[in-house]
Fold this sequence. Notes:
By secondary structure, the protein is an alpha/beta fold. The protein has a single domain (22-175), classed as SPOUT methyltransferase, trefoil knot domain (Alpha/beta knot), CATH 3.40.1280.10. 36% of the residues lie in helices and 19% in strands. The longest helix has 16 residues, at 160-175.
Amino acid sequence: MRLNAQELRKSEPTEEEIKNLPRNPIFLILEDVLDTYNVGAFFRLADAVAAEKIYLCGQTEAPPNHKIMKASVGTYKWVPWEKVSTALDAVHEVKEEHSDCQIIVIEQDPRSISYTELKPKLPLALIVGNETAGISKEVKERADVIVELPMFGVNRSLNVMVTCGIVLYTTVAKLNLPAK
């Protein structure tokens, strides 16, 4: 079911509608993402790829929050999400349900590979971190792979949501997931 922005803003899905939407076994884990507009945009991204769930961890704000609700264009109502104490807790929860879940951290790190070299497999969890401090050491240690985008200009990084969008859509293309 595709809804336009007006329908999303006004729609109030039932639990049954949410449950019956086809989902891909993709999880987004946000660790201390502080910009609420970024958080709202992550809901739109999760909806765009039919992700199974978003985990909002640590200091990451959760709905109802006016900026999240506005930036998500209503998708926060349609995408399953959970507020979790830590990103490590979210990783454990995902692994409990999907022991074969590939844990992918998006971070600049000496161990990281280019996102283009990623060999994704489903189910998978993409983890993004705080806009300034990044991802905690404990979560990086739990990752199966750490990926980053190469930077060619004077800036050393991109917005966390933009980076995740690039990695996620590259991953979706490599997995050859069918569009709905």
